[in-house]
Fold these 3 entries.
Entry 1:
Amino acid sequence: MERMKELISLLQQASEAYYQKDTEIMSNQQYDALYDELLVLEKETGIVLANSPTQQVGYTVLSNLVKVRHDSPILSLDKTKEPQKLLRFLGAEKGILSWKLDGLTIVLKYQQGTLVQAVTRGNGEVGEDVTHNARMFSNLPRQIAFPGELVLRGEGVISYSEFRRINEELGEGEEYKNPRNLCSGTVRQLNSEIAAKRKVQFFAFTLVHAEGAALSDSKAQQLQWLRSLGFDVVEYREVDKDNLLDAIEAFRSQVAHHEIASDGLVLTFDSMAYSQSLGRTSKFPKDSIAFKWADEMAETTLRQIEWNTSRTGLMNPVAVFDPVELEGSTVSRASVHNVSILEEMALGIGDTIKVYKANMIIPQIAENLTRSATAEIPAHCFVCGGETEIRRLRDGKALYCTNPNCQAQRVQMLCHFVSRDAMNIEGLSEETLKKFLEKGFVRQYPDLFRLERFAEEICSMDGFGEKSYTNLIASVEKAKDVELANLIYALGINHVGLRNAKLLCKALGNDLRRVQTAQPEELIAIEGFGAVIAHSIYAYFQDPQHLSLLEEALPYLRLKAEDLPKEAQSRAMDGMTFVITGDLHHYANRKELAAYIESQGGKVTGSVTKKTTYLISNDLHSTSSKQKKAQELGIPMLDEDAFLERFGKPAAAQEEG
């Protein structure tokens, strides 16, 4: 009984953090293990406490959003990690196997073709009205060609690429831990502008009700019908006992490259009549089951906690352990994320820990078997010896080095300055920059343009030589011709990624002096900016040290505006919207192709809609969801050769081609 009470308390704390505060105090794997332990104890004792999470769904909603009671409860799913259990569940029936997307479940209601309500899952009985935000979802139709009342369920998600972009602009210490938390926090905002900027997407997975429609009994055909109305639907495969295991493996092979976060698969019966005949338990529907990837677990010994100091002074703890094989690769390190998690896991050097790869990708500590709690929070930075302090951030307590002249911070700032999307100076790795700092060749970024003063010393360094030095100086010289947006990004202004730097420069006429003197109200007026970004830019250029360093560097630089045709000329792709899918041959990657399209006035989006002008794919016979959607909407498709023939390509791509 005491252990059951302890488990219930731990699970409730985790649910409160997850559903109410959009944070995580334990991994999904840890939560599942505690939940399963509680289930076993309840079966063994025959006792189920009233507040047990095995008898509830989710956590009580608590916010300023209007609460709405669902017409029918949204139950959680029973789960398994055993493929054979899925086979037994399916039996001789036909089924639908789909991604279990890791976002925020939302119920949509349309009347007379118009979206009238969007409600979050909440605790399964009561959710929150987020209609104002759903209308801003990047791929959700506001109007559909169906006059009756339509109710459907799906998942609100934010893609990995969008997650990385947003975190980059939020700044260190303010980042969201994963796309699920970001999506939940975004959809539940009171200001719909935030949802619009963060490109939330919606993927339908169940048709609940369609007034007056003569619908097929097949769930697969119902999903196709929703797709015909303009909805994106979750990727799925039609399965039976003969191909179910192959389908599971096909999904497994996509995990590492899938753009939307998922925490497993869902198997449900294709026949709606059969599904409805099965009914439900008090907690689970009987027609569906969740399949979670069986995390390959390894036991090892914690040998060290490293504290890596970033350019803002944030010190990130990293667990270093005896190497183990997981999911086909050797791992020996895992991020602990922050001080709060370090304390909650009671880590200590020499502890026996269990590690796994979350979603088969990211190394994580699943459990600390020893729980010695002997790991010390350093009082001084390991690099500079400066005092540290603990600050409370979004996801808990974090450690900071308080010394602004810390060499570790300076190294990371210089690494950012020379990075590809910033000044793009090749030949300056982190290790090389550390050596240059130690020898006094470089103190701040303007010194990078004066390296000729140390030519003899650099050439005599281990691993360098005259040829390496010559290549480095050539790269520095090339970097002096820089677009203003790349320079602004290189400065490392908090919340200003490359995208925001481009928006800033475009709004202020690519004029550095205007950027330096812009007032907060002028910055807030820039499309896509808010008070936080505006204040960060304004504060940066109010700092005399920042201004002094920039003035010191400017004589070496040849600033240029973004290399675009003159405004008076009509650009080749003005007003066009493109979607890119699959592998590319002529361009290095999708990012390079997207940059070229945008330079010619076009726009690149992540999903196909009625507004899409062209879908670019080198496999025109692919059955991907994007190409199916393009075919359904009559969107023309181009392979790379056809695109280049029609729109040309930048000089760099021509040389490579």
Entry 2:
Amino acid sequence: MDKLDGLDRRLGVGAPMTRRDFIGSTLIGAGATLLSGCAPLATAPQRGRTPGFHPWDGYGGVGDYATSNGNTQAVMDAAHVLRDGTQARALASASATGEVFDLVVVGGGFAGLAAAFQFHATREGKTCLILDNHPVFGGEAKENEFSVGGYRLFGPQGSNGFLPPVGRTTLSDDVWRAVGMPMEYEFADAEETFGLRLAHDSYDAMFWGEPKLDVGHFFRDANGGRWVKNIWEDGLTRTPWSERLRTDMLRAMTGKETAHAMEGLGPWLDSMSYRDYLERELDLHPGVADWVDPVLAISNYGFGSDVVSAYAAYLLQLPGMKGYFVADTFDFTQIKIMSFPGGNTTYARYIAKYLIPDAIPGEGLESIAHGRIDFPALDRAGAPTRLRLGATAIDVRHEGDAVRVTYLRNGRAEQVRARTVVISASGQMARRIVADMPERISANYAQFHHGAVLVANVALNNWRFLHRLGMGAGRWYDGFGFIGSIRAPMKIGGQTAPYHPDLPTVMTFYVPFYTPGLDIDTQGRIGRAQLLGKSYLDYEREIRAHMNDLFGSAGFDARRDIAGIILNRWGHAYIGPQPGFYFGGENGEGLTAPMKKGHGRIFYGHSELGWRMNYRNAIAEGGRAGEQAARALGRGLPA
């Protein structure tokens, strides 16, 4: 055995799991099953233990989402037909299905589902087809499912964190109520806390909710490193930071300094980067921006403070912005953000079931959150709404009195006709799909820059090591990612996840990719290369070694304690709003204004057109575009 294999063995890479952990693990919707009782890790195909296991995608878990963990190799290969400009050959061989729909929606995430929802709300009785390029709908609102020790465990692939409707009503609030989402939720830590304050989602511990939670920071020192818990409780005195940095961190977090009047604040902030605002306008130590960079990149924007508009940081109430908020401003720090077991997957499933009642059998939270999808029901002929999976749109163009939509499915190009179209795919897809896109829209889309993100869910046989450290989330300043956390599970009928330090759970890692000091386009390309350039095995080794390094002193052993790892790669996860994104462009309208108007029978509605990328803005933008399409039909477009 060579040295590398010896290291792999010590880390537990490729270690077998008991057969019971895979009972019922049929990959529903993909037509495939696990062929072995061994853990299907990336080492398996290379060692001949699990035929057909993809060495780049890696283990996908069990259940409906097992073949749809992030952007898989198959999804990327189809999308790269657009990137490489090779769709002409597919178009030449495309065959028409003969179908005509009142609306075709490109994209099946929150925006696409909301477009269909609002279209039907405005034009009842019309037909709609949603095209989704993944094996399962939901965009980044999908989940990873593990089976460990007889328990069903879930983690978010991306989107997580929600609040039920409160106060003012938005379209998301209206949809929430219409599809029957519960208004109240219970979590397991209401009965037993084990002496810890745990988050209910995977974002809160990064910044907004940290003062209310038990969060550790790992600082390197001459002895290797040490964990410091709840660093804000005593004014950062236990951190190794300089006195100047500690003082400026506290100023940024709690101070109410302002550098501009409220009038004209938005355009002024949008004229500079967030780093320039912190260092030039507030005269804060550069370490403040360094500290907040990964939070900024992961929470919404995909990049660090040197290339992201200061107005973007204002929208997230990040450090240095507290002084601009008034008493009635929604305060993220005063609430506890919640998460369903698999992130916002449950909300997406509720909307899909509302649009297609047979999509998920049963009623109520337990059935809709944890029931299996009826995949044939999604695209049933004659239904008002149909959802076609594995369909990558490659060409959308006006053709006479309709719009011709061409997509790839099962290696073949197919075409349908639509009276109206909503593009709910991301901007980098939209500008390559729409063949007759007006120049101004195309030029603005060309200024959209996307950051890469990796979300890794690690199933643990227990979390006793975190309990010993007295924390549920940890942040570090080198190595893999920057933060990992567990969540107190939501109580969902008889399928509530276990909650005890000696029982299994899922630890979620959000990993940004940014390279300060370079322009935003270069950073995006480097980040994608870093994200996509490693095999699953590379990441598995890195995660296991890093967790041993961080948590070994608390008794953690990757070989013994890790039950499985799922990677979710998102190469274009977030739009990075550079200075001028919000209030630049023609007439100070920002870059998104022309897209929101649409052209002809084609309308645009996706989360990037909102000022922040989240489920609420995705629903708002998708719903707006769906309503625009419905009204266009009402104006008498030819049938």
Entry 3:
Amino acid sequence: MRTVFTNGHFHTLEHEGDIRASLTIEDAVIVALDEAPSAKDAVVDLNGAHIYPALIDAHLHMMETIALASMGEALCDFVDGTVEPHDLHGVEAKIRAVAEQNHAKEGSLLILTNYVSAAIEEGRLPNRRELDSWASGADVWVLNIDGHSGSCSSSLLEKLDLEGLAPDGIFTGPAHDANLGKFTACLASRITPQALMRGIAHFCNECASFGIGTVCALEGNDDIERDRMGELAAFIAQRLPIDVRLFPQYMDETKLDRVRSKMAASRVGGCMKWEMDGSVGSRTASFFEPYKDGTRAEPYFRAGELEQILQRFAHEGYQMSAHAIGDRAIDQLVDILAALPGRHRIDHFEFPSAHAVESVCAMKPFVTVQPGFTWIDERFLHGYERFLTDQQIANQVPLSTLMHAGVPLCGSSDSPVQSVDPFLQMRGMREFPLADQSLSGYEALRTYTVNGAEMLEEKKGQLREGYEASFFSCDIDLETCAPSALGGLRVTDMWLHGKPYRRLSSNMRALMRLLVTPPHKI
């Protein structure tokens, strides 16, 4: 049966300002625009709303987001333009309160997220002895907001057999990134079915509330013998109401083989094993020039070793995705990709050199960006100004230059490092610290729609005939509204594959229904 949606402003995103009066769908596909309904058609009146293609988050970590939504407690919050708590005394009080609330004791697990070391007066994570004292001997895992550092209590350090690597319990750079699988495996062993479903429901409902219909899930760790968390991610992803496109973060062919059959296309990479460097917050992003305090960070790979790995996957037909933030790491990656077949992804591309910008404008890979983090850092965290020189800050990704050169910028959140909120990222694109590199409302929307669909080679991300009938409505014109209007924005309604999105419940009955849902390719 055909359904005609009327009385709305249908933003096709084929061209800026291209708005149609109606949309007709049949069998989950858009079949017409500006067509009057017939007597046989169902009609949906949208009451003057603005309609857009469902959004695509091109880079997030689904299982971490799900697990932390159900089991994690945020340590720091933004309060009146500052981060609280702002010192270790306040952190101690917060951890003691969380431990008491959760009846923490020896053997129990506390996961504490959203720690902002850059905004803490002491400028560091709590060490193992402090966590032991503050959390009643529980197994404690603290995750820094930069995604590349954290700390844990003595009991957890012993269980993971990592005492020799981090005697004080504080992990940063390669010591953190190369062992994250051990932490996630511990988390997977502790999560209950009820907590799992609670996290799944929160994740899907949150995505739908922001108009996100597709996510690129970067999942898996190579540093453990059997990555059951990665396998669970693939199993769950096949059954979710939102579309998931898996990027396995493996270089290990055995692990990759366990999930490849579930995928619709040959994709690999993301973060973890596919990280060329770390992050600014942990001072492990690799720059040619030292950080303001004199710290120097090396790339995670030797050039010859990395070239062999990338050549192997490229010649096997995989689209590769790799994390690179500092100019030195970006140059290393770009120079290798330029000589390889296929069209690949560079994730973050946060501080590229002039050489890298010129190369990328020529070869046009997909560049996955998260300017919402820059927007937050400039206003709340002040990590860049604390750690980076003025010249390094001035070399942030030139969004407008890349887009006007035809480089497809793909918007994303890097959740759980940030909220999945796409409108925060779009605001970051429109209020970029380098004012001449800010994007327009239309250009920001394209990063979350047209460009993501091009990267996935799928007919979605636009309202046009023959394309997927997934779209959302909201009360404002996202092409012309002021950037400030994006703050706190939620969509009004969401349709996925022609059907209204129905919120997932978090009870065990919902989990049973999910488990028996027929799988689809991811």
